[in-house]
User: Fold this.
Amino acid sequence: MTTARRLSLLATAALLAGCASVSPDGLRGDVTALTAGRTAGVPQAALPAMAPAARAQAQQSIDHWLAQPLTQDAAVHIALLNNPGLLARLAALGVADAERVQAITLPNPHLTLGRFTTSQEREMERTLAFGLLDLITLPWRTARQAERLQIATLQTAQDVVTLAADTRRAWLRAVAAEQVAATHERMVEAAEAGAELARRMAQVGNWSRLQQAREQVVLHEATRQRARAQLAAATEREQLNRRMGLWGQQTQYQLANQLPPLPAAALPADGIEATALRERLDVQAARRQLDTQATRQGWSRAGAVFGDIGLAYSRNTTTERATGSSDIKRGWEIDLPLPLFDWGGAARTRAQAEVEQSAAQLQDTAVRARSEVRAAWLTYRTALDLARQQQAEVVPLRQLIAQETTLRYNGMLASVWDMLTEARNSTQAVANAIEAQRDFWLAETDLQLALTGTSPGALQGLTSGAAASTTPQGH
Amino acid sequence: MNRRNFFSGAATAVAAASVSRVALAALPEPATQSSADTAPPLHPPTGRPYNPVVTLNGWTAPWRMNAGVKEFHLVAEPVVREVAPGFMVNMWGYNGQSPGPTIEVVEGDRVRIFVTNRLPEHTTIHWHGQRLPNGMDGVGGLTQPAIQPGKTFVYEFVARRPGTFMYHPHADEMVQMAMGMMGLWITHPNVGKGATHPHIAKVQRDYAFLLNAFDVEPGSMTPKVNTMLDHNIWCWNSRVFPAISPLVARQGERVRIRVGNLTMTNHPIHLHGHEFEVTGTDGGPVPKSARWPEVTTDVAVGQMRQIELIADEPGDWALHCHKSHHTMGAMGHSVPTMIGVDHRGLVGKIQKIVPDYMVMGERGMADMGAMEMPLPDNTFPMMTGTGPFGPLEMGGMFTTLKVRADQPAGSYADPGDFKQPSGNQAYEWQGAAANTPRPVRTDTPGTAPGAASARKPATGTHQH
Assistant:
């Protein structure tokens, strides 16, 4: 082997190793590209930057958003910039990138130096040994590490879209809870008027203690429900604070005073399964996993049979002690494991099983994605119908009942308490409408996530609505 | 008044009496009434003469003479009755109104009544109080098959005794009477010219009306047929004060008032300013020796009372049922008494929740008579009516007997408000205010006499 040839070999190795440099932005650009259009209705949300100047600018933006009544888009922006958990995930992605680079950097060659003396000779051994397999498999391994990193990137992107969805849900719950608490304030006012009038009725002898007690119980029931509603408003706001990574002075922001209006038309159910299979990040990750395993199967066979092939170049100098004349022995050594015992069967089986595992996982993910998107769409559609019914039918009916009861009060056909009860029922209907509107937007968030993001987990829309709804009479 | 329609109907019937035998073989043309006003008395154009009655807010059915038989045609049908201006009720009635037209005949007349059923269900007519063949008594299932929708039945009998009678269905009776199906029947005594019946005096004014009651949910139009006693619309001839016509009389005239009760409770009918005698009941004229003077007579359920008086005191005299709830419009019986409850500081608070709220009942309910508050649609107010001195605070079984020295004989025109002669009217005391000591009053509720006093002191009842 000539020097030139040796140099060219080293140059190739250096070139291959040179590809393996870490991404300067910690792969955030890749994550941003993957999450574009998938972050809970926010078209292009920024992720925390590496540069200190950009971080300071992000803090300014956060302060600016918090200075105004907080919209859901602003909440999502803040969460993606400021959530410490997400920052940790992004940092972990940076670690994975560094590990990738580490993994595909060629191992350093071994230089063995030996000095042996006998009575006649002095021998100097110089061996430059190089693990050949690493070099041979470098293109494979580079591709594999790139794929693994892509999977990690996809997983981080899923974390981003999940955080965006969680933030949006938290915002919806917090805004709805604050509005509901305000309706309970009005219901308490109505009950207070009724109880106070009842007290005066008993005072002048028009009512018995029994009748008065009934109105006092109504007041206590109303204050009990108000306390729960206020607690719910505070805890939902804290959930939102956690998502946005806020503490201290920053938590003093004001929430927007209403939920977005219901859409005029529902999203059609056409092609939702195809969209989910095409767009969802978890499906993409599972598909990538299968590809990786399949390519790995190819070279794993060779690797498993031949183990590590070693190449060594020796240059030994033998010097006769008596004469001082020296002789140089040069030579190549190749180190091959003999496939006597391990014919690579186990490794092959393992690789094949891993391919099967990945294929099954992809199928599982796809089946889940299809089912989730169907369930999410049904929940979305039902939630929209229920919210429209509450808003367009029930609330106006309750208001009509309250107005008609007032007319009956005018005609001495109904009492002040009948009128106040209907005023409370009417207010309760408004609270129910707010909750139904919230449930719709929660279902919409689930649907968007199930359609283009990742698994929304248990659907939040209607189940949570049923649990959170309150009844006016408390029975 | 809508006399034109009435007379055109009557004229048709009379005209029919003079046409061919072919026409007489057909059903008499049914007359119909579109007005709830009091029609003028129908002087008999054919048959034996008599002094006709005036049906308050009603009318008398025209007839045709067919070979000496008086033929009437009643059509049982759904109607919309104006119970008071602006208050319409879906009822069932006869010939366009509830109650149906008054049937006036003379003792000894042979009467043939065609009854056509235009209701959605079967019906019959029972001739309440009449002596008649059993098969003409009109009890569905007992004396005849019911008249099916679209069918016409014929009743025929001789009006054997004079007096005040009623007619009403006797098939699904509860529902059909709750819907307003009823009418008056007057059999005038058969006396020759110039002669008088020994127990039936000749009168200058002869008024007749039925007592009936409905339960109309405020804001609705159709009576609740299953209500037994808790009615809210107490009527005379399906009409309530101030929409009931006044009774008018010239000073000194003899006035007869015939009242029949088809509600489900009794009504003590009371007249101001005069005594009267009950001169007739369901059973016929009361012998003079058996009469006694009264100012109130109770008309029990299913009864008729015929009272007579000399209207010799000029003025506007109240005539009403003495059950005070029966002179009221629709009211909420469960609305609590608010008298004496201080509303200070609460009005604003309640108005914050119910912007249209106004305090009512704090001093009593008289405010209701004066206040013009929006009510549910088609709702008759609890108190209404205005006189020359302010709100009357009435509604229901109430009207007036207007006695005037200058009321022309035979005129039923409303003479307007009575001009009170000076010195003959209650007036306000202008001297020093009354200075009577108020009795000492305990403000806290006590225990019933004899009850065990195991309760805590009453001061503990008013916490917070």
